């Protein structure tokens, strides 16, 4: 199954369209992945603060999926808060995520990268590979085709996978949602679903070792944050074009 998740024929180079296109200045595209409650939003907020301190002049764009555009936010409303008794078949769910992503890439991410911005995105196409292609068991090849169609060659430079036991993530989520009265339909799956998500992510990370960095998310907020910064420092040292644009 794992082999079919990622076709060897498809492009795996970061931002291939941008690299081959006319844009001289290139930004940096970083995504955060992991199951519900693993700490993506927490870490993006911290990283954004850090980046702003280090280089207040560098444009920083912070996004979440689904969402980030007028269309995407409407899609988010449907996926997250539509009455849970209303049916959304997995195929329709996949296409809704893909529609939001297609809009986000062309309206926001690609232009931002061409301006030289750092783009931090809370979830991107790996979520679809794993949630729809593994946990919902849609045909991984078809999921991948739709993924690549939606992103049009704009692929993250780096992806942080915040990994933790599914049960621990659920526990964090429960605590966070304790005050909320609204039902989030994306958080209503059985335990086995979240376990499949975790394993799906870990498999994907093995297949894309260069891009996807696995971080132990069970550690404290501070420790996770430090590990992310260490990985970023390494990345900047090994990619001089980003050093030249004085990101850090
Ligand atoms: N390292 C950590 N240790 C303990 N608690 C944490 C840690 N990171 C985040 N939390 C807490 O766990 C909860 C979930 O974190 P957060 O909202 O950042 O996760 P998320 O991955 O964005 O979740 P979702 O996928 O549902 O958006 C929050 O209440 C947050 O304060
Ligand atoms: Mg979040």
List keywords for this structure.
248 residues; alpha/beta; Rossmann fold; globular; disordered N terminus; binds adenosine-5'-triphosphate; binds magnesium ion
Q: What's the helix-strand series?
A: HHEHEHHEHHEHHEHH
Question: Could you please say which CATH topology applies here?
Answer: Rossmann fold
CATH architecture annotation: 3-Layer(aba) Sandwich
The largest sheet has its strands arranged as: 2-3-1-4-5
Query: How many individual domains?
Result: 1
Low-confidence stretches: 1-24, 244-248
Determine Rg (CA atoms, Å).
Answer: 17 Å
- Rough outline: globular
| Amount of beta strand | 5-15%
The CATH class name reads Alpha Beta
Structural class: alpha/beta
- Helix percentage range: 55-70%
Give the number of DSSP strands. 5
CATH superfamily: P-loop containing nucleotide triphosphate hydrolases
Give a brief rundown of this model.
Helix content is 55%, strand content 11%. It has 248 residues and is α/β, with parallel strands linked by helices. Helix 6 packs antiparallel against helix 7 (140-151).
Describe this structure in words.
The chain is of the alpha/beta class. The chain has one domain: P-loop containing nucleotide triphosphate hydrolases (Rossmann fold, 3-Layer(aba) Sandwich), CATH 3.40.50.300. 55% of the residues lie in helices and 11% in strands. It has helices at 2-5, 16-20, 40-54, 70-81, 90-115, 125-135, 140-151, 166-177, 191-207, 221-238, 240-244; strands at residues 28-33, 60-64, 118-122, 158-163, 212-216. Helix 3 (40-54) packs across helix 10. The termini are far apart. The model is unreliable at 1-24 and 244-248 (pLDDT under 50). Residues 34, 36-42, 172-173, 175-176, 220-221, 224 line the site of adenosine-5'-triphosphate.
């Amino acid at each position: 199954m794992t082999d079919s998740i990622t076709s060897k024929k498809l492009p795996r180079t970061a931002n291939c369209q941008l690299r081959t296109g006319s844009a001289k200045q290139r930004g940096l595209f970083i995504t955060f992945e992991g199951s519900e409650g693993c700490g993506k939003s927490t870490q993006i907020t911290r990283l954004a603060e850090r980046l702003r301190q280090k280089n207040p002049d560098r444009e920083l764009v912070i996004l979440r999926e689904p969402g980030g555009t007028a269309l995407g936010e409407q899609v988010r409303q449907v996926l997250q808060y539509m009455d849970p008794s209303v049916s959304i078949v997995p195929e329709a769910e996949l296409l809704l995520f893909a529609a939001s992503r297609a809009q986000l890439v062309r309206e926001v991410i690609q232009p931002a990268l061409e301006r030289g911005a750092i783009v931090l995105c809370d979830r991107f196409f790996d979520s679809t590979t794993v949630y729809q292609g593994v946990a919902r068991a849609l045909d991984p090849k078809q999921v991948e085709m739709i993924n690549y169609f939606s992103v049009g060659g704009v692929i993250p430079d780096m992806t942080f996978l915040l990994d933790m036991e599914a049960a621990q993530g659920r526990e964090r989520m429960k605590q966070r949602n304790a005050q909320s009265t609204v039902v989030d339909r994306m958080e209503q799956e059985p335990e086995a679903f979240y376990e499949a998500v975790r394993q799906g992510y870990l498999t994907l990370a093995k297949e894309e070792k260069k891009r996807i960095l696995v971080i132990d998310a069970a550690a404290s907020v501070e420790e996770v944050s430090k590990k992310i910064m260490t990985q970023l420092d390494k990345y900047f040292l090994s990619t001089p074009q980003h050093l030249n644009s004085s990101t850090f």
